[in-house]
Specification:
The protein is an alpha/beta fold and about 400 residues long. It is built from 15 helices and twelve strands. Helices cover about 40% and strands about 15% of the residues. The protein is globular, with a radius of gyration of 21 Å. Bound molecules: pyridoxal-5'-phosphate. Pyridoxal-5'-phosphate binds near residues 84, 182, 184 and 218.
Length: about 400
Amino acid sequence: MGKNPKFETDAIRIQAEQSHHREHSVPIYLTSSFTFENAEQGAAIFQGKEKANLYSRFSNPNTSEFIQKLCIMEHCDDGVATASGMAAVYTSLVANLSQGDHVLASKDIFGNSLFIITNILPKMGVSYTLVDVDCNAEWENAIRDNTKILYVETPSNPTLKLADLEYIGQLSKKNGAIFIVDNCFATPYLQQPMLYGADLIIHSATKYIDGQGRVLGGAIIGSEKYTAICYDFLRRTGASLSPFNAWVLSKSLETLALRMDRHCSNALKIAKHLEKIPMIEKVIYPHLENYPQFELAKKQMKLGGGLVGFEMKGGLDAGKKFLNSLKLHSLTANLGDSRSIATHPASTTHSKLTEKERLDAGITPGFIRLSVGLEHIDDLILDINQALSV
Ligand SMILES: Cc1ncc(COP(=O)(O)O)c(C=O)c1O
């Protein structure tokens, strides 16, 4: 566990070992491999009898530092850094599944994660069932004897629905399944799924963990029983995180708490503002009092997060007009950046799904997702008002 009582301190103070240069800021270890003192040591490291860096596809001081910090923040035993969030999703599933297994997942998850479950896993002889993330009875009814993995994203992308982590965690334990949670939207600062029975946690570090839209990266952390399997799969298949990206991401963790406080306070103010605008049909934000899962959101999430969803009256045309009128917000595919971003999921992130799959996931034509950044709240509201012509 952590060296200090509060993880914000560990996020700043944990560092890879200093070199003989006594640097204050950790350098980037741009090396493919590491030397052995002699043949015996080489053999011991190769055989796993001595724990040390060997080759950067396996581990590197920068990736280890990044994972060590994340594990403390998430209350996890161990983990592995991946080249992207999708590499983490794919590895966590494929490394732990065999032909004949069944996966139970929520319908509204990131489009590419859904694609892996519905298009790639079946080619390996793995079946699946999709359920509504917020309906506990559906989870219970769909579980089978061969269900090996329960997979959720909470809050979900992009509709911001919540999974009841404690309920699904208990269901998973009762049935001896592995409970995987994509915690990318909440980050470890707002929500720690291990406390509710998760076995593995996924991060797209590309989002809030980087926080400035610079690098791709991911992580799988959790209980050692399952992270060891993921580590073995990853070191053989190769989607490891580069030392440079790990260095950026580890540095970014130093400011995660501060940034998330500002993302969340800006997002709550915007959600409350949008609620008052007549041309907005509905606003979705987990810490709004009229949010359907408000009590659950308060229980699981320290704050409501940096994403706000809303439905425009006037559907697709109104949504497009809004996006085209924004001056400050960026139109781009990412989220969790210091710069605010507006997205129209039906025509971008979720465009590869069929219309039925989109509607099943709650993505209607007029749905807009805002990733609320760190700019001054007054400027963000001015931009939204002018784009809505209010
Ligand atoms: C919830 C969620 N999980 C995983 C991913 C994939 O992450 P990456 O783009 O780093 O591969 C994304 C990307 O948007 C996401 O939103």
